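Folding Task

Wanted — backbone structure
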Amino acid sequence: MIFASDLDSTLIYSSRHCKLINEKELFPVDFYNNNCSFITKSMHHALKYINESMLFIPVTTRSPKEYKRIKYFYDEIKPKYAVVANGGIILKDGIELLSWSDIVSNRIKEITSVKTMIELCSFFLESNLVKSYKTCEDLFIYSILDEDKLADLLSNQETDLDYFQVLRSFCSKHNYSMSKQGRKVYIVPNCINKYDPINYIMQLENIDMFIAVGDSLLDYPMIKRSNYGIIPSHGELLLNPPLEGFPNNVYITKEAGIFAGEEILNIVEQRFHEISAISQEEVSSYIR
């Protein structure tokens, strides 16, 4: 079985999400520009067990360089695979899996290019709402919002959050997805998603079952196709749920913040033990 999980605000949490927990219970995993992200010590023990019991795959919008900054995965957990750049790149034992990169490269040639999307979305990207923007490995666009400017415009009723729905609809017409996660806005081609690389790894490893976890719209492609999905009770996905609602096999955590991370790993362990206890013939019908 595979456990495929988003990282930021799903498994690992910045300090602002950890204020309600004793510092002695925190386990640092990522340092950058004087900022730190954490898991809890109980999560550390649970994740080590999960990684030993099943195929754990970190799945993230981070670039390969940003992912490799998380020394925890290289020094402690050492997962065989990692899916980075929102599914555009698979790392196997820390090295780019070129067979998957070739597939992605061919897909990119068939769609509106990232360069063209930058031009088409200039009304947003070049606006005073955006501090900066760039591409991730030339696969998608991500921008950093000026949160103070956005707050001023919202308070003065010069704009509203429907603005981002308009941007999302515009991107959709070009087969791109838009995801707002805090101060970051991602504009990503639909052919680059978090499910397809998981499916590719499943074929390589001859595994037909996976649990998927994530908090954003970019996580939903893998969650809705998983055998069992988990969504933390915070973040973009609950603010903008799919019109058809979530499938019955999707669980929403009772906890939020880093406590949701603990709950997620407890549920994954529980599911693993329940499934291991039943016959192989019953697994598919049981997990759904």
